[in-house]
Automatic annotation (TrEMBL):
Protein name as it appears in the record: 3-ketoacyl-[acyl-carrier-protein] reductase beta subunit
Family: Belongs to the short-chain dehydrogenases/reductases (SDR) family.
A molecular-function term among this protein's GO annotations: quinone binding
InterPro entries named among the record's database cross-references: KR_dom (IPR057326), NAD(P)-bd_dom_sf (IPR036291), Sc_DH/Rdtase_CS (IPR020904), SDR_fam (IPR002347)
Keyword field: Fatty acid biosynthesis, Fatty acid metabolism, Lipid biosynthesis, Lipid metabolism, Oxidoreductase
Gene Ontology BP terms: fatty acid biosynthetic process
UniProt domain Ketoreductase: residue ranges: 7-183
Involved pathway(s): Lipid metabolism; fatty acid biosynthesis
Annotated source species: Corythaeola cristata (Great blue turaco)
Length: 183
């Protein structure tokens, strides 16, 4: 169905929101996609609606083992990953004084650690292919802050520092890393 030249893209958080919109655009451009979400059924529905040849996978990005298994599965089914989009994120709004520690940890693990883990796995694959591109979805609150979103804002600000540093680490390997901060 796809030519040998078609690029393969992994979209974490690809089943809804910004991730789904990115998936629709890339599918139109002829990319082979892996739609990855915590909810497999929703990911499968999204992948089916994009047409044939796309893969749906379930993954909790905060688990290094799950991320590694997901990348192995993508390599097996789609070949090497050329593009990575990190749109998986959770937001538990609330004033800091009312925030539960486990909610803080969940946001840090999904929004920040999860992106680090998927980038680590993708970079390994991209170095072997001599290039690739990563886009991490941030949020303008990571730059400006917002009342009631201190923890979420911290995770999105962390993405900016992480992505800038990673971009410098992998530039010589022909891998681009960018953050898009909507809002």
């Amino acid at each position: 169905l796809f030519s040998k030249m078609s690029k393969t893209c992994a979209i974490f958080g690809g089943s809804r929101g910004i991730g789904k919109a990115v998936a629709e655009l890339l599918a139109q451009k002829g990319c082979r996609l892996a739609i990855i979400a915590r909810n497999l059924e929703v990911a499968q529905t999204t992948a089916r609606n994009l047409g044939a040849g796309h893969l749906a996978l379930s993954c909790d990005v905060s688990s290094e083992q799950e991320v590694q298994k997901t990348f192995e599965e993508m390599q097996r089914n789609l070949g090497p990953i050329n593009y990575l989009v990190n749109a998986a994120g959770i937001n538990r709004d609330g004033l800091l004084l009312r925030s539960k520690t486990e909610d803080m940890i969940a946001q840090i693990h999904t929004n920040l650690l999860g992106t680090m883990l998927t980038c680590k796995a993708a970079v390994k694959s991209m170095i072997q292919q001599q290039g690739g591109a990563i886009v991490n979805i941030g949020n303008v609150v990571g730059l400006k802050g917002n009342s009631g979103q201190s923890v979420y804002s911290a995770t999105k600000a962390g993405l900016v520092g992480f992505s800038r540093s990673l971009a410098k680490e992998v530039a010589k390997k022909q891998i681009r890393v960018n953050v898009v901060a909507p809002g």
